[in-house]
Amino acid sequence: MTRIKVLGAGVSRNSQEMADGRTIRYYDTQSQIRSAIDERPHESQPSIGELRLDSLLNEWIALASHRQSRTFLPPKELCPLCPTSKSGLSEIPDADYEVVVFDNRFPSLRPPEDVWSLPETRGPETPKAPAAGVCEVVCFTPHHGQSFAELTPRQVRTVLEAWRDRTAELSSLDFVRQVFPFENRGEEIGVTLMHPHGQIYAYSYLPPKTEKMMLAATRYFKNTGRILFDEIVAREIRDEVRIIAQNEHWIAFVPFAARYPFEIHVAPLSPVADLTELSMQACDSFPEMALEVLQRLDGVFGIPMAYIAAWHQAPVREGRDLLRLHWQITSVRRAPGKLKYLAGSESAMGAFIMDMLPEQSAGQLREVVLNK
Amino acid sequence: MTRIKVLGAGVSRNSQEMADGRTIRYYDTQSQIRSAIDERPHESQPSIGELRLDSLLNEWIALASHRQSRTFLPPKELCPLCPTSKSGLSEIPDADYEVVVFDNRFPSLRPPEDVWSLPETRGPETPKAPAAGVCEVVCFTPHHGQSFAELTPRQVRTVLEAWRDRTAELSSLDFVRQVFPFENRGEEIGVTLMHPHGQIYAYSYLPPKTEKMMLAATRYFKNTGRILFDEIVAREIRDEVRIIAQNEHWIAFVPFAARYPFEIHVAPLSPVADLTELSMQACDSFPEMALEVLQRLDGVFGIPMAYIAAWHQAPVREGRDLLRLHWQITSVRRAPGKLKYLAGSESAMGAFIMDMLPEQSAGQLREVVLNK
What we know:
The structure is a homodimer. Chain A is an alpha+beta fold. The first copy, chain A, folds into two domains: 3-205, HIT-like (HIT family, subunit A); 210-367, HIT family, subunit A (2-Layer Sandwich), CATH 3.30.428. Chain A has six helices and 18 strands. The first copy, chain A, has helices spanning 153-171, 208-224, 228-239, 280-299, 344-349, 358-367, and strands spanning 3-6, 12-17, 23-28, 50-54, 59-63, 99-103, 129-130, 133-139, 178-185, 197-203, 243-246, 250-253, 262-268, 307-312, 326-331, 333-335, 338-339, 353-354. In chain A, strand 12 and strand 13 form a beta hairpin. In chain A, helix 1 packs across helix 4 (280-299). The radius of gyration of chain A is 21 Å and the shape is globular. Strand 5 (59-63) of chain A pairs parallel with strand 18 (353-354) of chain B, so a sheet runs across the interface.
């Protein structure tokens, strides 16, 4: 059974059930009807993992011990993210697609089967809980050898519509507290499938970074009556030296206190809490900005850069007036052949040491000549 | 000029000035006099870096832009951590040593030249500050090809005495807030010098992890009147399944909510705030425990494991009754040929996903047969 929904920017969504009961959603620009059937044998779903409290730091850790068997750098002809073809049945039943989002086959977090609530944290006595949440995979393009930076503006616009749709739908689940779309790119950071794709994690708990951002924003608001992130953007605009790209609706800058050799924050100039709140104008001008930023990143050393591109959004039901949507892109590459590793100070103490001035990396990113 | 100090366990310390004004300290067990002169040409010291506040998370970042030029995987005959010999003048002027600690040639943090205080954090308006602190290098052995796990118990005892001495002395500096001895081991985590060595960072600010541990311990104490870390150890002793080694004065366990495929916490059974407070009995039984733990780690896959070994201590002047000394060893190796990478969820959100149950890795560590 195919269910169709019409979204913004002329994008329609076909949802279908996969052989093992998971859902796949096709995001299309030509109002296609998607009816290809998943011909693979039925596979039983892994059971839900567990959440354990690290009481020393008061942080939840998700344990998903079934994931060790997940697919690891398969050859191109066995890629599970390419469309299904004569060479193999993939995760995508159809012979072609534009953008798809489907439930992860090896999810770290899963929807709970019963009524679920997060235990109150209270030290080593805190009980375990099922690792509730949702993990989805987002395929940006059917073409195996492409990268996000090589998409057309139209394709990026469709990906954005898919992210917005998933944020809206996942936010409506009562066990979901935070929705996090992201992309890991590059073998250097452990990517196990080379096909251009991202992921979405919907957490049932507040991730530590979100919690810490909320704490800082709350404190700042109490002291000044102002929104912290808006003041940070205002400061970057005043300082100017770290801005690397700007259009009518978006700004991209290397933050004043960057943690990585290349770190870029991209923010809408009209601040919003999450992707669903973006205006149509902001959405329509996002592809130009996203492509410029990623092309500048790949241009710095003339090699594809490993990066993590992370959408920070306000949590679903709290801090909506205090936290702002922004896209954070970080790369561990310091130079061709040199990576920044998180060793003792960063990993064990959380204390970041940076070898490069943010003004210097902003300069390198600005100097890249783009093929427009 | 050589200055000599007598420490515990028959260890004496010779301090000497290096050619560029840095200090080197020899820790010896035979009351040697060390008088070899650093024959290298004088080299000017890099200037102090800067601390910038990442106001989004309210965390200090240390910028040390001179460090990009530091020594990167030199061949054995040019190793700066071997004793000085015919093949070259190294960081250690003498032709032999047991354990040495010297000021880092490429320090991320340096003692401030003027009166110094940490600015109050107040959002994007927070001023920069000089990156005050101290960075030292600890050489565990003169033998280039050894590892910590291959030291004799006597050598480990001398290293411990050096760590204790440095903690005491660095704690007395008015700009130092936290002393952190650690070892990064393995090229996989970015180690640039293969000679067995560790480092000591003395921070002028509270590192984010220490701050978070303090928050959790304070909250727990307010709610229960008990010390969080002591309750965590009590719980591990009760549960038993994650203990991997124990003697009269120390216990080693995989924590209930481990973040890494192999993570071991080692704690004294009589809790103390930092290394200087350990009893002589606890000090004397540490080498046996340390060697067993590191040998178990190397034994799991029969290959030298990359790891970070981090001494968490109470800060110098706060939380001394709430935080406890423990040694945290983490390894990113999941299997031979497979590493755990910190990607989107861990890096951008701080939300750790673990593929392996702590009980499982504790079992693997216990099963290792040691060559005693």
